[in-house]
Write a structure and sequence with these properties.
The chain is α+β, with helices and mostly antiparallel strands. It is built from 3 helices and 9 strands, in the order ααβββαββββββ. The strands form 3 sheets. Strands 1-9-8 form a 3-stranded antiparallel beta sheet, with no helix packed on it. The protein has a 3-stranded antiparallel beta sheet with strand order 2-3-4, covered by helices on one side. Strand 6 and strand 7 form a beta hairpin. The N terminus is likely disordered. It binds FE2/S2 (inorganic) cluster. FE2/S2 (inorganic) cluster binds next to loops.
């Protein structure tokens, strides 16, 4: 009966991905920001299912905007962080479970630091909660009282309440997720093209 049953997990993952994609567009619309055009010249659906890399044009992704792509059947969030959002990250370390992302599998070895990215302003992460796999919602607003007045923006998983910052790092306290959101292997083909699925060391 419940969509949380084991048998429904695949469909739930798919559904929550679509929900995330929809909510992202909704957030962008709510703050009066145009949803960016994101051109991609991806392989066929069959090739994507087999795990082929996905190229994403981020040339028109403005600061504060996020888009969702699909890679290996998983949602990948690509967020263009603002200078203010980047400045907030090191201030949060004492509030997080794993501020340096030391848990194996959290990110590729060439990803370092609190921004967890190759280029600080562009954050690439798999949009699946590390608790039970729901898709966290993008909540960039500051001081949201439903969380607390110190909320500086991040990702919120409504399934069981896990909260992550804008580097996908999970907050200590009530968040049931114990691991940060996972950064996939990726690289840049050029300044405006992210290649998801091909790591920097082999690009
Ligand atoms: S799946 Fe995200 S908090 Fe449980």
């Amino acid at each position: 009966m419940s969509s949380d049953s084991a048998d429904g997990s695949v469909n739930r993952t798919r559904r929550t991905f679509l929900t995330a994609a929809t909510s992202v567009v909704g957030v962008a619309g709510a703050v009066g920001v145009m949803t960016p055009f994101v051109g991609s010249w991806n392989p066929s659906a069959k090739a994507k299912a087999a795990g082929a890399p996905v190229k994403v044009d981020i040339g028109k992704l403005e600061p504060g905007q996020m888009v969702v792509e699909e890679w290996r059947g998983k949602p990948v969030y690509i967020l263009h962080r603002t200078e203010a959002q980047l400045a907030e990250l090191p201030l949060l370390n004492s509030s997080l479970k794993d501020p340096d992302s030391t848990i194996e599998g959290s990110q590729p070895p060439y990803i370092k630091g609190v921004d967890r990215s190759i280029r600080p302003e562009i954050f690439v992460v798999i949009g699946l909660c590390t608790h039970l796999g729901c898709a966290p919602k993008f909540r960039p607003e500051v001081g949201v009282t439903e969380f607390n007045s110190d909320w500086g923006g991040g990702f919120f998983c409504p399934c069981h309440g896990s909260m992550f910052d804008l580097s996908g790092r999970v907050f200590a306290g009530t968040s049931p997720a114990s691991q940060n959101l996972v950064v996939p292997p990726y690289s840049y083909e050029d300044k405006n093209v992210v290649v998801i699925g091909v790591g920097e060391e082999v690009a």
